[in-house]
Amino acid sequence: MSPTFRGKARIAAGIGVAAVLATALTACGGGSSSSSADAGPGQPGGTLRYGLSQAPTCADPAQSGTNQTIYVTRQVVDSLTDQDPRTGELTPWLAESWELNADASAFTFRLKEGVTFSDGTPLTAESVKKNFDALVNTLTGAKAPLAASYLTGYIGTTVIDARTAQVSFSAPNAQFLQASSTPQLGILSDASVAKPAEERCTGNISGTGPFTYADYQQDKSVTLAKRAGYSWGSDVFGHDGEAYLDTIEFSVVPESGVRTGSLSSGQLDAISDALPQDAPQIEGAGGQVLTTSNPGTPFGFQPNVTRGPLVDPVVRSALVSAINRQELVDTVLGPNFTPATSTLASRTPGYVALPDVTYDPEKAKSILDQAGWVPGADGIREKSGQRLSFPVLFSSVFAGNQAILELVQQQLTAVGVDLQLNLVATPEATARQNAKDFDATYYNSTRADGDILRTQFGLDGRNLNSRGPIPALDDVLAKQLATTDTTERNALLADAQQQVLDNGLWIPTVELSQAIGAGPDVQDLKFEASARLQFFDTWISGR
User: Fold this and answer.
1) Can you tell me the distance from the alpha carbon of 315 to that of 389, in angstroms, rounded to the nearest whole number?
2) pTM value?
3) Least C-beta-crowded within 10 Å: which of 95, 393, 405, 436?
4) How far is CA 524 from the centre of its chain?
5) DSSP tag of 139
6) What angle do CA 242, 246, 252 make, to 5 degrees?
7) CB half-sphere exposure, 540, CA atoms < 13 A
8) Is residue 440 predicted with pLDDT exceeding 70?
9) How far apart are CA 28 and CA 527, in angstroms?
10) Is 9 helix (H, G, I), strand (E, B) or coil?
């Protein structure tokens, strides 16, 4: 096997398969932190009160998908590796070292010694095997779509000895090492893994993370408690030993104004989804808004290409030109957000800007005119008795979604397209996506690796488009998965981005940014590599 990575697992220039690591977030930055220059060193103790904009969907990291859910689950589970948000480098966490075979189809991890789960049992190579086996064979893609997509082609995990596990795939899987840093592939205790999927969602699970579940009330609140004796933190963390905070109290506060008011009055210490109009009130109370942009796919429409007018690829093409993305940012989101310029977000390794992702309403009208979509009496186009109207399925998983789509609705009306907004609760949105019961669905997906194009649009991925084979696209998605040279893989990802757009599989709108309101006493609240919060280094001053 070659090569081997130890310590900081630095990338050696010119070492064939090692180049896969360089695809991770290189020079993408890590966002801001709530550190104050005169706050001094971190101090243990205290409770941080956090206001979530939406309820977590499940306590199980493997089944988590939304940002609000991952803010919670990331704290209770550690992963085999971690990803430095500043450099994109993959570094040790539960694994102290690892090796890849020549074609990146087998990954051997050497686990740290002395790691235990919060139920008192030790972390072993058997634990890694049971976690990954359960993801593929028990949870499956129905319950854990992201985790299952990271394990595509999984053959099994071989326990070499108590601290060494070899994870094998049926074909090269260049994305897996970065996937091993995600919370979805975090490691739970053997007893937790043996529980049914629904029970894992209730908070009755044990990880090796710096916090544990003290209380989990679905749709209401979550309380996390510091894990006593924690001493195996990631190399990315800012200090050694236990977390500083004694407890984190998450409450669900859907109304933006209520969240901001609670932060400004000192009832909450930090909040999700601080809107641009909230910033003056937060800063006036001595707080700040922390921001970072998300890698992965930007917000956009994913059409079901088997039903409604979106069956017509010409219509899908026209929608790309009909959307004024800069207006969405300027009117709804503010300067901390950016318009989408590709089918990948700009912080994603391998991203390229696509010239066709440009606002040109006259081009959109011309495309529709030439395809025989003629304006009716009310301005909405028709063809062969079919009205150019379709619903978009979405949830308020991001606070700005409805306002964005209301403005897109106006923009599309201007070119003769009737967009109907179908707002549903997040669980219903997920269920209907899985059943492919929609004409179009609107969401984003976060991951610091360009393989998200395969997991989102590939025939072996979620394929919410319900598409059939597209040989050129299918071929390039497969090739990037088997390519470990960074330059070659990025070229394949550039091709894939263009093909996803050309086939009308994604109509991009805006890139997601995290905007977190933090009170004046909150220190070192940080974003991890995929723009989710990491509370290990966070502490409270002035109390």
Assistant:
1) 11
2) 0.82
3) 436
4) 22
5) I
6) 120
7) 16
8) yes
9) 13
10) coil
